[in-house]
Amino acid sequence: MTDLASRPHAATDEPTSSPEGGPTLSSQGEPDRPTHGDPYDGDPHDPQAQPGPPHRRGFSAVLADLAAGDSPRVSVGQILHAFGDRAFGALLLVFALPNALPMPPGTSAILGSPLLFIAFQLMIGRPVLWLPKLITERSLKREDFRTLAAKIDPWVKKCERLLKPRVPLLTTPFADRLTGAACFILSIILTLPIPLGNMPPAVAITAFALGMIESDGAAIGVGWAATIGSFVILGLFAGVVTAGLQYFGGPLLRLFGF
């Protein structure tokens, strides 16, 4: 079949307007193609007419919708459903970010348990996040969720402006398993009663989560750097505790004849 675009235009190939004011037709009865990259939607099989991929809503937008709901409480199951295929990163962020900010004592112990469960599934390569009914039915009062969302919203929006898909080496399925292993260990550290020791691992998990949500390997790299920092802080704390026990515990043990 002869390619019309490759032949010189003859007088008979001049386009004529359709009486209905639709797309112009050539003498062969075919729609006249637009030029210079103009959009064309006359032919559904034309690649130019195909719609682009749907825009993925940002984490902050989904969080705002959850906070603006009408039900008196917001459950973990609702959060899981709202984020869909981004549930791993989204729930890691929801449970980790509050611990990276000044929060009441005991918060890390409450939020650390779901983190352990989520990170373990990520570590073993489970394709879809599953949570037991015991966790999905846990909920917050709507007002408390709105307060929490209002606190983290400015931080999330700042991060969203910086995040973009890059460094794909750190966003592969194998890399996700390594990220899950790191988050699992960090979640254990997060639940330990270490003064101010919950913030570094929470920052690391938050960076991992943001990187997973936006496929940003650079953010995941920041998470690995923060993970190393968390281990260093844990080591220093363990050294201080050990030295304190040796310094104060030795005389006490000798006092009681041990």
Give an overview in words:
- With 258 residues, this protein is an all-alpha fold.
- Helices cover 57% and strands 2% of the residues.
- A two-stranded antiparallel sheet has the order 1-2.
- α8 (199-214) runs antiparallel to α9.
- The longest helix has 39 residues, at 217-255.
- It is globular.
- The termini are far apart.
- Residues 1-47 and 49-54 have low confidence and may be disordered.
The succession of helices and strands, N to C, reads HEHHHHEHHHH
User: How far apart, in Å, are the first and last alpha carbons?
Assistant: 100 Å
* Helix fraction by DSSP (H/I, runs of at least 4): 55-70%
Instruction: Tell me the β content.
Output: under 5%
Structural class: mainly alpha
How many strands appear in the DSSP assignment? 2
Q: Major sheet: size, sense and barrel closure?
A: 2 strands, antiparallel
Give the CA-based shape: globular
Please, how many helices? 9
Mean of the pLDDT scores? 74
